[in-house]
């Protein structure tokens, strides 16, 4: 699935869309380096985002919004019993979301991408008409 600004993605009539399900990702912070967020789940429904997962800091939940026209996302990551982190990102044109996270005066880059099934080689070949 390709996600793009203003380009038809997934038959959405010009709106950027993301699949609900398993996602992989990372965040980068000075002193911590690149840290994975794997595995985690994101659900997209009616312009809302929810999800949950675990990273080096601990378990977390996600809640936020997605603009169906641009693919821009704004999510708050809530570490259970701890602090929150704001994530703002844009589609990269390849199905991933790239952006910046921020907590207090600290910020850094992040990337998220859907986990897509790998072909087994036994899939039927379909003619495109």
Task: State which percent range the strand residues make up.
Answer: over 45%
Anisotropy-based shape:
globular
State the CATH class.
Mainly Beta
Order of helices and strands: EEEEEEEE
Termini gap? 19 Å
Largest sheet entry: 8 strands, antiparallel, barrel
Give structural notes:
The chain contains no helices and eight strands. Mean pLDDT is 85; it is low at 1-15. It has 129 residues and is mainly beta. Helices cover 0% and strands 53% of the residues. Strand 7 (97-103) and strand 8 form a beta hairpin. The chain has a single domain (21-114), classed as Lipocalin. Strands 1-2-3-4-5-6-7-8 form an eight-stranded antiparallel barrel.
What is the topology?
Layout: E1 21-29, E2 33-45, E3 48-54, E4 59-66, E5 73-79, E6 84-91, E7 97-103, E8 106-114
Antiparallel strand pairs: 1-2, 1-8, 2-3, 3-4, 4-5, 5-6, 6-7, 7-8
Record keyword descriptors for this entry:
Lipocalin, 129 residues, mainly beta, disordered N terminus
Give a short synopsis of this structure:
By secondary structure, the chain is an all-beta fold. It has no helices and 8 strands.
